[in-house]
Amino acid sequence: MPELVHPGLALDPAAMSAREAMEPVGLRRIAVLGGIYSNHRALAAALADAHAAEAEAIYCLGDVGGFGPHPDRVFPLLSGAGVRVVQGNYDEAIGTGRDDCGCGYADPRDNFFAQISYDYTHRNTAPEHRAFLAGLPAYRRLKLGSFAVHLCHGSPRRVNEFLWETATPDALLERLCDRYACDALLVTHTGIKWQRRLPSGRLAVNVGAVGRPENDGTKRVWYALLAAGRAEISVEFRPVEYDWSALASEMEEEGLPAEFVTTIRTGWWTTCLEVLPAKERARGRF
Amino acid sequence: MAQVLQFRGGPAPAVPDAQAIPVAQAMPDAQAVPAVPAVPEAPFGELHDLWFQVTGLRCNLACTHCLVNSGPDNLSLASLTVAEVEAALAAAVVLGVKAVYFTGGEPFLHRDLMVMLAAALAVAPATVLTNGTLIDEAVADRLAALAAASRYSLEIRLSLDDVDAARNDAIRGPGVLERVARAAVLLDRRGLIPILTATEAMELAPGKAPAPAQRAVPPLLYTRFRDFLLGLGITRPRVKIMPLFKIGRLAGSASHPVLTPEMLAGFDRALLQCHTARVVAAGGIYACPILAGDPAARVAGRLADALRPVPLGHPACHTCYVTGMSCANA
């Protein structure tokens, strides 16, 4: 599986500063959403919750499409709420017309379902939305209070790298924070949230995903609300309830695999399971 | 190490193997003899995976297709000590290692494997590649305790070749399928969902994922292993299929292609496992788990010195190139 590497890894401090200058200044409270996967109903609910929580800006860490129905429906929601999006591997693939999603699966069953999802999403994404996806930045940098925050999709070094809670060593996260000169590193791609305060005091957060429940047997999805304090950034994972039954019906009407619909209806993952580390896999049903 | 195949790009072998000499070299007309192509290299990126060949090539089985010729009588590569493992782990942590793997030979033959695993799991996720025949209730209990004590995942990969006892055991030895099936259940009942690993002949476009047509239906072998696990009552089946390497006991007498710079033109060498992995085995640091112990594949004496390009001169390198395979879990 080809690796998708961020162009021009941001080792140049000047480049990183330039990125920070492109984001709003004076931020102290932001909402950060993970993969949307075409779940327009969960996205709408998450955006409403972020506004209610008085988020000053809303970010999405990429993978706008995939898995769910009617991929074009998420774009008006994103633009309407002023969501600032980072490019995920799915976005890069759809935007540039790749043959597959570049999710990084090695397992044949995972690739089988991933291809169905990708072909459907590619076929149903309007050209103007593909162009939007192709033009997204590979990462964003901002100041939250006095803290430097690096936002990306998989990891800062590779767009489709999985950073699972039980498979990502402290020392690796410290190294990434050093290299990318940040106090907080925010990622998604895995679909399951976690946060960790590193020995150095810095913060690593996987914000989870808005588009798919996190394999815990509940239908809700999650996003992260980050607030800058005087000494550190606090993280609140916020659950999002939404009309999953309506989404499941749309998926069935669109002819998406029953396995996908089951995930929405039950909260258990049925596909893309082989990339899960042992501990995460043991928490699920399948 | 009783490798039949030669590694181009490393030290010259003491006794040249006729199979490794290009036919053109034996031709009398000097003008007709092309220059021996330069051996391409894999650049080193950064350390993701650190492998330990803990028992050298000593194994309680002697599988007919073993790509490193492991067996009960193969003592050609010494085992590692706990101190050696701990020293390499300390060096790897500084480098930001992401995952640690234990292989052999058969890792569970090492009396200190549990100590080594505990050291690894203190700093990173760890995986053991095993034939599974030495995992009993007591071993499974100890593994479960190690996993419970760590924030990181412990993965156990069980090797099999077929879900049919006769076919599997013809390769691996009498009674092996039954013993591995028991090990899988013992592990699963303790929350250590094993990964069943099998080999299959495959050839894909270099550097490419399987073409969509190849993804249309999950391969038969994969499905058979998945169904096998489900049949054992393992409701979360995990299967990894790896390509068959025609090396080790399968080397035979056929010629084996090696990589040339022309083949690698336009190929992203960062896709190769040796771009981000190193192997600790007796005698030093090696480029690849299946070449550990091969003097030509030795990169350095210590990890800090092994972060440099390595030659892609072994036929195994060609297999990685054409299959896109990785020994890593995912």
Can you walk me through this structure?
The complex is a heterodimer of chains A (286) and B (330). Chain A is of the alpha/beta class and 286 residues long. Chain A has ten helices and ten strands. Chain A has helices at 13-21, 40-52, 74-80, 89-96, 108-123, 127-134, 170-179, 244-253, 258-266, 278-283; strands at residues 29-33, 57-60, 84-85, 140-144, 147-151, 184-187, 194-197, 203-206, 221-228, 233-240. In chain A, α4 (89-96) crosses α6 and α8 (244-253) runs antiparallel to α9 (258-266). Chain B is of the alpha/beta class and 330 residues long. Chain B has a single domain, classed as TIM Barrel (Alpha-Beta Barrel), CATH 3.20.20.70. Helices cover 24% and strands 14% of the residues of chain B. Chain B contains seven helices and eleven strands. In chain B, the strands form two sheets. Chain B has a nine-stranded mixed sheet, covered by helices on one side. Chain B has a two-stranded antiparallel sheet with strand order 1-11. In chain B, α1 runs parallel beside α2 (113-121) and α2 (113-121) packs parallel to α3. The radius of gyration of chain B is 20 Å and the shape is globular. Mean pLDDT of chain B is 84; it is low at 11-30 and 203-217. Chain A binds chain B through residues 1-3, 5, 99-100, 104-109, 111-112, 115, 157, 162, 164-172, 174-176, 273-275, 277-282, 284-286, and chain B through 46, 93-99, 123-125, 147, 151-155, 191-193, 207-210, 212, 215-219, 222, 226, 235-236, 238-241, 268, 270-271, 324, 326, 330.
Would you state the CATH class of chain A?
A: Alpha Beta
Look at the helices and sheets of chain A and give the structural class: alpha/beta
Unreliable stretches covering 5 or more consecutive residues of chain B:
11-30, 203-217
Task: Report mean pLDDT of chain B, rounded to a whole number.
Answer: 84
How does CATH name the architecture of chain A? 4-Layer Sandwich
Rg over CA atoms of chain A: 17 Å
CATH class of chain B: Alpha Beta
CATH architecture of chain B: Alpha-Beta Barrel
- Structural class given helices, strands, pairing of chain B? alpha/beta
CATH superfamily of chain B: Aldolase class I
Number of strands of chain A: 10
- What Rg of chain B, in angstroms, do the CA atoms define? 20 Å
Tell me roughly what share of residues is in helical segments of chain B. 10-25%
Helix and strand pattern of chain A: HEHEHEHHHEEHEEEEEHHH
Q: Largest interface, counted with CB-CB under 8 A?
A: A-B, 41 and 44 residues
Question: Which fold does the CATH topology of chain B refer to?
Answer: TIM Barrel
Shape of chain A: globular
Beta-strand residue fraction of chain B: 5-15%
Q: What is the subunit arrangement here? A: heterodimer
Strand order of the largest sheet of chain A: 3-2-1-9-10
